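Handout for the seminar on molecular recognition.
Each group receives one record of this type.
Step one: identify the two inputs.
Step two: read the structure output and locate the region that could contact flavin mononucleotide.
Step three: write two sentences on what you found, then compare them with the reference statements printed after the record.
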Amino acid sequence: MSFAEFESIATARRSTRDFLADPVDQKLLEQILELGITAPSWSNTRPFMVGVATGEQRDRISEKLVSRLRANANEPGMGNSPDFTHEIPYPAGLVERSQRVGKGIYDTLGIDRADKESRFRFLERNYEFFGAPVALFFFTHRGLDHFGTLDLGLYMENVMLAAQAAGLGTCAQGYLGNYPDIIKEEFDVPAEYALVCGMSLGYPSHHPINGWKAERLPLQELTAKPKN
Ligand SMILES: Cc1cc2nc3c(=O)[nH]c(=O)nc-3n(C[C@H](O)[C@H](O)[C@H](O)COP(=O)(O)O)c2cc1C
């Protein structure tokens, strides 16, 4: 593959937040997940696992997640108990970046920030996998601390780029890490493995939300300046 081809795949990848119901070929899905394993890993330990939900299992998980979300709608933290806390306030300097994403998504969907019902509906769409036929759930081994999540991230990015090259869309979703008890009822995962997040995968629709583009920060802003 040429540099230009890689560039076109990498720059075309964007989070997909509305999918067609078209199924993903099982063989293709397996190839994409296998390509994930070409990522480097801390001492080649691959301290992560992936749960793949399609068909009836995907529908059942979605129903369980949506009903849990609705049941806890009025409670702070939505009654969730994630393996890794999500209650991390955004540090100064980063909160503005996050707010720009929220604003971009809500503006594109025509949702007023004060419109709690529509915002809740968008939250529900996360748990409906935005209509995607495939839902992935990612776990890391707690014993390798941050290297576990780092390796998982490398795996996830390979999966997302492979999916992109195959004409598929993806959305990594922290929200899918909110209810580990539901996900662990569905997959056989050793006790040392913790749920981190999930991912929706399928063919993107032509919904305007898929045309919205999160900003790309200039490299300069992410580059540490030499001290002298
Ligand atoms: C670990 C992780 C968790 C994320 N969680 C969510 C999520 O729960 N819901 C969502 O709509 N997007 C989620 N995103 C997508 C980010 O908002 C998105 O990657 C970012 O805004 C950059 O946009 P891009 O993916 O289109 O380049 C997540 C991304 C990552 C890497």
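Reference statements: The chain has seven helices and four strands. Residues 14-15, 17, 101, 126, 171-175, 197, 214 surround flavin mononucleotide (CB under 6 Å).
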